[in-house]
Amino acid sequence: MTTITRLFDFPYYEHEKFKLDDALVTKYDGQWVKTSTGEYIDKANAFSRGLLRMGIHKNDKIAVISSNNRSEWNITDIGILQTGAQNVPVYPTISEEDIEYILNHSGAVYCIVSDQALYEKVKTFSDRVQHLKGIYSFDNVEGCPNWQEILDMGRDDSNQEELEKIKAGISETDLATVIYTSGTTGRPKGVMLSHKNIVSNVLMSSDRVPFESGKNRALSFLPVCHIYERMILYLYQYHGVAIYFAESIEKVSDNIKEAQPHVITAVPRLLEKVYDKIIAKGADLTGIKRKLFFWAVEVGLEYEPYGANGPFYSMKLWLARKLIFSKWKAGLGGNLGLMVSGSAAIQPRLARVFAAAGIPVMEGYGLTETSPVIAVNDERNGGFRIGTVGRPLKGVEVKIAEDGEILCKGPNVMMGYLHEPEKTAEVIKDGYFHTGDIGHVDTDGFLKITDRKKEMFKTSGGKYIAPQLIENAMKQSRFIEQIMVIGADEKMPAAFVQPDFEFVKQWAQRKGIVISSNADIAGNKLIKERIQQEIDEINKKFGHYEQIKKFEITPEPWTVDGGEMTPTLKLKRKQIKEKYQELYDKIYRS
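That's the Long-chain fatty acid--CoA ligase sequence above. Prediction below.
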């Protein structure tokens, strides 16, 4: 049996142990097309041989930019890694300026894109990328060589022996990939991760997932250019999980019903949208059906793991699952028994209600620099606690600095930032990676994140404000889609509120309020008063000095393309404040 020390060992291990017919499954022209583990390996080898014939050498960089997850990405990934070159995945939604910077900074010699739009995006600046020799695409794009040409170059296996020698010479400590952090400020930094960094994280995380090896299906839709989903794809291969790739984030709900996965990975924003859609459907019911639906939701919101609520609650939960929650599960394909969430904190109410519905969300925590998982919940053996990110992985040491910052040490901690030893030295001190997050470990070993160190601020009265805690609480309101707490060096905390425009329009229609645009919502006095009621109610959970005293409604959604959000859906606080400087002045200067 293959011993896994390098990332490209995973498909060989999967083939020896499981021999899946549906290792990778992608939808083309309305049909799901399966790639077996054997075909996956054969194509990866052909791709490697083709790259060698193109003159690829050890430590060359190949950028891969895909707007969706697909079988070709994984084949390309393994094909690149087997040559000793590095895969540099790039977010498809970032600016042309940032993509140009990444390609130049990494020294990419080739770039592989998924489709015409990305080809045109890269083509506009390709002549300014110093080392770039060519662009290839997964889709058939006019004027762009297809990735199939590389496979065709590798069809002749006469250089397979050369490839095997190169593979044998690749060490677990060799660089495997450079992943550029999206960053809320400044230029992206290139995180260097070795084979050992990611392999160790896969093997350590393996203990926390209840997969029935060789018998599960997953639906993959989070960007594979991020280490979170990418590590999960290697983890699926380690457990012989068939990987179905969603067509797009918009088609996830359709694809879940088609693929009927047992597991998905998600981010809180997606779970919030799923929950809001379920609640909206419940609100459309009438009579006894409506009462039963919202009774079940109330039962779900009281949920505590391991029967902590007592036997009477257990009876209510059994009934709620039979009458209501079973329909939720059916709407999510019928098999879904596990969701893993990362990237940001999940609202405890969502963790409770999904667990009550029999679709538990196991929240975890980590960073690109830690490959990524530091800690994660596990429903088995008492390892699940709502409001925490679980216990640290075995093999990862976590300690809390005097100022509350979370520090960690382990084989998953990055090699450093590419070409930036000074920035590396700023975050890795005395062998510990400084995460920039504030948190604590409770008496049972569960890690709880309270905020980002750099996002905490002081009011002019000297009180510390942790904005994420307040924002997560406020987003429990149906009226509030996004919120950013402001007030550094000001006399009080305030906020910009991006309402849930769709929900607010429905509410306004029921109240006879005429709304023709998002700007009408932002300027409507009655809507502002209604959102004020929501904020007043949630404010009661916080100390007086933490409460939102004033807010302004922003007239447009905050998006990645609009520059208000990072590709991992975190707030770009500096950009949002600059964009809404007039509203800021209205709050604090008028």
